[in-house]
Every structure is written in structure tokens, then in C-alpha cells.
Design brief:
The protein is an alpha/beta fold. The protein has helices spanning 9-30, 32-36, 43-50, 54-66, 86-91, 101-115, 118-124, 129-133, 140-144, 148-170, 190-198, 210-219, 257-270, 292-304, 312-321; strands at residues 70-74, 80-84, 180-184, 203-208, 228-232, 243-249, 271-281, 283-284, 310-311, 325-330, 337-342.
Length: 343
């Protein structure tokens, strides 16, 4: 029809989406935002500092300006100077308390490579670690933690997520009645820190694999975190510590329904009377129409795990199957939502 665009704009935007991602990934990897922190530099000076070509650097910088990751002004000699935006200073600098740098690095070097095999994942219905990295994935976390470097990268990813999003989900319910809390798969301890900060009378035990506990103690949780302690084990194989409340933050989405009920039933048996379990997950709409972030994350679970993102009703069914009652759903209005169920 007359006046219509010859190409659908949305299709082109979707096709170009990976170009935007790689621009962000490369700018972080090359150290653009780190070098510009607190200063303004020309493309030629920045290229020299980074050991990159001037032409390539200028193209990358100008694209970052269009993405609102950098801003420019011109000096009295007419030279264009680049500097970080407030958003980049907050989220793309390693030293920032709200940094997403490690998360971006993990997305670039691990998740992105798995997504290269998304078509195969859809055909086969299983994760793609073997094609992406040559690693057998019968034991999910042996594949995910295939090297110490990879494990630390994943832990930094989770640390950055909970540093930013943790308080919203921890305070979705009043957890003050639960004095003894166990964070299953607590990883770096970032969510445990948010918990003891929000509820000063509580103590949190982080239960995770021995090598994760060792790394967390070395890199993430200090002796000053007096109300946080550790317990080593595999939550499918080993006895769980007794607690008033168990936290499963982004855990069940890794596993099938059968394995999820198995874990929840085990928690139910270990949970003290009147205690409960707090799930932190990304929730799909009940009609599966969105949100888009949850749908994309569910595809990511397909290429990386044995699990999926679920609807609130799905988690309610899993919890009920394990024996839990009084199930409450709290939609935070942000990426992660919270579900509290009691014994």
C-alpha cells in the first residue's frame, strides 16, 4: 500500500539486536568505560591508551554515543571528546557497587556461545554445552563449573544481579519471623547479605557445593559478615541444615518439574513447623504471552540448563505437590518476583 515502509522496521531492529549486544560486550572487554571514568578523551587518545586502531575505536565510540552509553563535547580546538554517561559509570565500571561488568563478561563469553546453538537446542530439547564447549552435561553444574575460572565468572554474574535486585525480592514479604534462614545454592552470598541487612535479627547459612563455598569465602564473604555462615553439600544428595526459612533464588528454573518437586519435598521434610520456603524467579504471564524478558530467559534455560521459566501457577503446583500451603505470590514490578509458601 502507498506510504508503507518497504521493510518492516521491527524485523530489522530484531535482526540488529545482536549487533547492539556485541557493541556493549566489546566496549566493556576493551576497557572503554574504565579508561573514560572521570575523564574525557578523544578517539585518537583513547585508541592509543587501549592499543586499538583509531578508526575502529572512533566507530565503536560513536555507536556507544548513539546507545546513550557515552556522551560527547567539543574542546576549543574542535576535537570531539568522549566521556561516560551516568548510567555507564553506575553499571559498566568494575569498581562500582552496582556494576554489571562481570555479568556482561559472562554473557559475552559463555551465554552468547551457547545461544549460537539455539536452533539445535529447540530441535533436541536439551542444553548445548557439548557443542559450545565440548563438555558433557549429564551433571549440569559440572558443565557450568567446568573450570575454576568459569565458576568464578558465574559467581560474579550472580553477585552483580543480587547486589542490584536482591533487596526488592528479600523485602517482598516480612521475613522477620524467620530467624534461622538457609540460602540453598547461595553462591556468592550477595542475597544473604541483603537478607541480614533487611532483617537484622536473622542469620543465614549459605548451602552450596564445596568448591563454591571455598571460592565465596575467598572472594565474596568476609569475616565481618558475622551473621552469615556456610555449609557444604549437594542439595539433591546431602542432608539439609534445619532452618525456619529456605531460600531458593533462581534455583528451580534450572531443573525439570520432577527434580524441582524432589528438592521442594526434601526442604519440606527439613523445614521446622511454621517455617517456609521463599522462591525468587522470573514469572511468565498465565497465558504465556510474556513478559518478553521471561520468555528470553526461558530460552536461555533451554540452551544452558534442564529447566525453564514458569508461571506463578506452575510454582504453586510444584509447592503444593511437595506439601507446602499458604502460597503467596508477590509481583515486584521488576525482573524478579517472589513466592512464599509455608509448612
Amino acid at each position: 500500500m502507498a506510504g508503507e515502509e518497504p521493510y518492516p522496521r521491527k524485523i530489522l531492529q530484531y535482526m540488529e539486536g545482536f549487533l547492539v549486544s556485541k557493541t556493549l560486550f566489546s566496549a566493556c572487554e576493551l576497557g572503554v568505560f574504565e579508561r573514560l571514568q572521570g575523564s574525557q578523551l578523544s578517539a585518537s587518545d583513547l585508541a592509543l591508551a587501549l592499543g586499538c586502531s583509531e578508526d575502529g575505536t572512533e566507530r565503536l565510540l560513536n555507536t556507544c554515543v548513539s546507545l546513550e552509553l557515552l556522551t560527547t563535547n567539543t574542546d576549543p580546538h574542535g576535537t570531539v571528546l568522549y566521556s561516560n554517561t551516568e548510567m555507564s559509570s553506575m553499571f559498566l565500571i568494575k569498581s562500582s557497587p552496582t556494576s554489571l561488568y562481570q555479568s556482561i563478561e559472562y554473557s559475552s563469553r559463555t551465554i552468547y556461545l551457547c545461544w549460537h546453538h539455539l536452533s539445535d537446542a529447540v530441535r533436541e530439547g536439551k542444553n548445548q554445552y557439548e557443542k559450545a564447549f565440548g563438555v558433557k552435561s549429564e551433571d549440569l553444574f559440572e558443565a557450568m563449573y567446568r573450570s575454576e575460572e568459569e565458576m568464578v565468572k558465574f559467581m560474579h554474574l550472580m553477585n552483580s544481579i543480587w547486589n542490584i535486585c536482591g533487596r526488592d525480592v528479600i523485602t517482598a514479604f516480612d521475613l522477620s519471623p524467620f530467624r534461622c534462614i538457609c540460602d540453598l545454592g547461595g553462591c556468592s552470598g550477595a542475597l544473604a547479605k541483603q537478607c541480614v541487612s533487611a532483617f537484622p535479627e536473622s542469620t543465614v547459612t549459605i548451602f552450596d557445593l564445596p568448591k563454591v563455598v571455598k571460592t565465596s569465602q575467598q572472594h565474596f564473604v568476609s569475616n565481618q559478615d558475622e551473621r552469615i555462615c556456610f555449609c557444604e553439600g549437594d542439595f539433591f544428595k546431602d542432608e539439609l541444615p534445619q532452618a525456619d526459612l529456605y531460600i531458593l533464588a533462581r534455583i528451580l528454573h534450572d531443573w525439570t518439574d520432577q527434580r524441582s518437586v524432589e528438592l521442594l519435598a526434601k526442604i519440606y521434610q527439613s523445614c521446622r513447623p511454621g517455617g517456609g520456603v521463599l522462591l525468587v524467579e522470573v514469572l511468565l504471564y498465565e497465558d504465556n504471552s510474556g513478559p518478553l524478558t521471561a520468555q528470553l530467559y526461558s530460552l536461555n534455560m533451554l540452551v544452558q540448563t534442564e529447566g525453564r521459566e514458569r508461571k506463578a501457577s506452575d510454582y504453586s503446583r510444584l509447592l503444593s505437590s511437595a506439601g507446602f500451603t499458604h502460597i503467596q505470590i508477590h509481583n515486584t514490578g521488576k525482573i524478579y518476583d517472589a513466592i512464599l509458601a509455608c509448612k
